[in-house]
From TrEMBL:
Residues 1-20 form the signal peptide. GO terms for biological process: proteolysis. This is Peptidase A1 domain-containing protein. The lineage of its organism: Eukaryota, Viridiplantae, Streptophyta, Embryophyta, Tracheophyta. InterPro entries: Aspartic_peptidase_A1, Aspartic_peptidase_AS, Pepsin-like_plant, PEPTIDASE_A1, Peptidase_aspartic_dom_sf, Plant_Aspart_Prot_A1, TAXi_C, TAXi_N. It comes from Cannabis sativa (Hemp).
Amino acid sequence: MLSSFFIFFLLFLAINGEDATRLELIHRNSPKLSGNVRPKTQMENIIQFHRRDVMRIRNMVTRRRRRVTEMETSVAMSIHSGSDYGAGEYFVHVKVGSPGQRFMLVADTGSELTWMNCRYKCGHKCGTHKGRIDDDKRVFKADRSSSFRTVPCLSGMCKIELANLFSLASCPTPLTPCAYDYRYLEGSSAIGFFASDTVSVGLTNGRKKKLKNVLIGCTQTIKGDLGGFKGADGVLGLGFGKYTFTTKVAEEFGGKFSYCLVDHLSPKNLTNYIVFGHNKIETSLMRSMRHTDLVLGGVYGSLYGVNVLGITIGFTLLKIAPEVWDPNLGGGTIIDSGTSLTYLADPAYKLVTAAFNESISKFERLSTEGGPFEFCFNSTGFNESLVPKLQIHFANGAQFEPPVKSYIIDVAPQKKCLGFVSAGWPGTSIIGNIMQQNHFWEFDLERSTLAFASSSCT
């Protein structure tokens, strides 16, 4: 699952602590990444967030319609605010192959496949070959990896298990690798073949770990404009599924991963971590944790579904039809760190925006400047106490109450917008990463539970 996604930047040599690796997570427009040009205004940031979200959500809908133990060590990735870099996305640096070759990948919590720009059977020309992949991209030279193994096109894995990952039926010879063609609604695609190889990670106990036989995609052709992939060498698949990077790491470090997103307007030097495996957290945070069901597989596929029962604004429970929250009736909700904004199925969107509009109607309405929001206003004299609190009610009695700044969003000096976007109807509601900020989130894949608690993430 590809598009504009939540992207991680991993520094594998940044060791911190005794039992986890700290791997830095930085937005795509960071000055640390060569060639990045930061948008001039926060509204330009929001517009870019929305464009990448739209590409991502279109692909999510397509994929949904196509199907319906704590270890001694853990892997962690440090998280920086993306506001200073002008994006809601993150890159990762990851080493693939034996010996390891280093790449910058889009880290996508909704993607099942890890793939990268790739050359195969190019011999001594691997380092100089040009043509189908942009010349400024790093390319995985598969011939130089002793652990690289292709997936045969005649295998059951190709014909059955990888069918949902867009594997192709063509098989001209028994030795031909299993091919894929990732297609997007906007007309772009990534074309290549499946293989397995070793991915290297560092551990905070000072050792290094090699994850063997990780399924990867060797992308040889890119057609069209893949939008959010500009500046990246491929994708790190962090969704839920048999062959995702998340699942592979869970096999080694326990079936959990967690993260805490700092405020997107925080200074660049504030950092937190995404952790695979056991995450040592403060007792006070542990005591305030709330738990709900995590809906894995089925109609949600590789996405992380949650059961929403309703939304309260102030002290009023909105009269949102139950089918809005039912994935089998055209609705449903996912929590996604790769989508920046928060999308509500249209029946919920209309009621939520109407309720908040009452509290901000006394402020001067301002132009949205081509942005995705309908409600923007002059925030001179604005006080958060004027806005009723938002609560999202999950199953099992868990209530999520994000800070006001996560849904009344700063887009320019003296200008704020109500930060919801319509997902249409039928439509899947998405709790995006801006709404998730200042909360600790723990995904337990073995128990199918989601735990969360308010946190400064510092």
